[in-house]
Amino acid sequence: MDYPKMGRRTLCRVLVLLAGASVAGAHAAEAQVAVAANFVEPIKAVAAVLEKTTGHTVRISIGASGAFYTQIRNGAPFDVFLSADNERPEMLEKDGLAQPGTRFTYAIGKLVLWSAKAGRVDDKGAVLKAADLGKVAYANPKTAPYGAAAVQVLEKLAMKNALSPKLVQGESIGQTFNFVKTGNADVGFVALSQVLSGGQLKEGSMWVIPQANYDPIRQDAVLLKRGADNAAAKALLQLLRSPNIKDLIRSYGYDL
Amino acid sequence: MQPLVYLTPDNLQALWLTARVAALTTLILLLLGTPLAWWLARSRSWVVKPVGALVALPLVLPPSVLGFYLLVALGPEGPLGRWMLALGLPTLPFTFAGLVVASVFYSLPFMVQPVLNSMQALGERPLEAAATLRAGPMDTFFSVVLPLCRPGLVTGCIMSFAHTVGEFGVVLMVGGNIPGVTRVVSVQIFDHVEALEYADAHRLAAVMLAFFFAVLLALQMYSARQARKGRA
Predict the structure, then answer these.
(1) Domains (range + CATH), chain A
(2) Is B152 on the interface with A (CB under 8 A)?
(3) Helix B9-42 vs helix B185-194: crossing angle, to nearest 10
(4) Segment (H or E) for A186
(5) ipTM of the prediction
(6) pLDDT tens digit string along B32-42?
(7) Looking at chain A from residue 38 to 77, which residues have their Cβ under 8 Å from any Cβ of chain B?
């Protein structure tokens, strides 16, 4: 078989093209991002904006903040960590696993008591005292900040002991949401961001728990050591601080 | 590493719960799996192959698939869950019964396979001899088949118990992590690790390691003894 001969000039062109492609590749970087489960919906929207405006892509892992903290301490390959609290990013900074000075609050979370059934949860949370109350889901307080907030609420309302036979635990706020969504739990303590869409309650009924009942859920982002030179990671953090994106985050029910 | 001498009440509770789930699962499997294995060994129906495949399914099926179905189909909103509620039965997720049901399905091949193997190894001769002595099918099953299949039954029980103790994924998905009800040892270890409680995780993990080593060692010694008996 006869191949067309590649002239010297063609070869040069191909090489230039290849070099150009690899430069373009260096511009459009990819970052591995660990995201607290309550922030799933917003991060997808933010990632789409990032890709559109900069060409950078992010690979998103969803889980409980505490679980991510443990994984990062054990060498998990993440460039950015969007936690559901401010303590774990701070601890990572102290552990020397995060870049100092990159930590900031990207959202302040709100806890709600939610049921997939309409009319089940009243706006005072009296359903927690209902005689026919089924299982009450909350996230593992050791690893999920929203779970820790739920425990604070139950203690504040002096209902922890009374409700303890009905409590079921999700490993993350995502699993907790699923328990309620599938009806396996009657009500559950979940993140407002999980049940809102465009500022409206998607389905069911909820009680937005007054802030006085739990410490503010300050959600911090931090650039991890592994992502120190990752353009996509830095661009993502920068984007999270921009006014437009802050508005977007607020539309999911976060304070900021 | 912390000394491994001390188990917290939480850890003891998880161990006791795990033992109860595994023991009950093994008992149910013995009652359910033995006739099923006998039917699989003897029947010439075309259904044998599909049923055999169903029984082996848990060997390869990801636990998340079973967990998902349990949560969605057997929850109060699911088709089977509604049916159960209509019958006045409780739904299965977050309950001890749910854990046992999931384990029975999940450990089924570990009971059926060894029992089936020993039943197939019987051959026709003992059954023909029993028939010559005018033993009915039930009598044959209890007086001839079961005693001769004892090694398979013992192996099946040990494997079912051990496999249930080792279960993790399904429980994580449908357990709800309730102390004393669904927080079994494997989940307890997971929680300890996720919360950076390595000392507690080490203690329980060491117990598990020792347990499974002992079980597998016992199984090896048992089958070696059976093989010697067989030759003698």
Answers:
(1) 8-108+218-250 (3.40.190.10), 111-208 (3.40.190.10)
(2) no
(3) 130
(4) none
(5) 0.79
(6) 999 999 999 99
(7) 64, 66-67, 69-70, 73
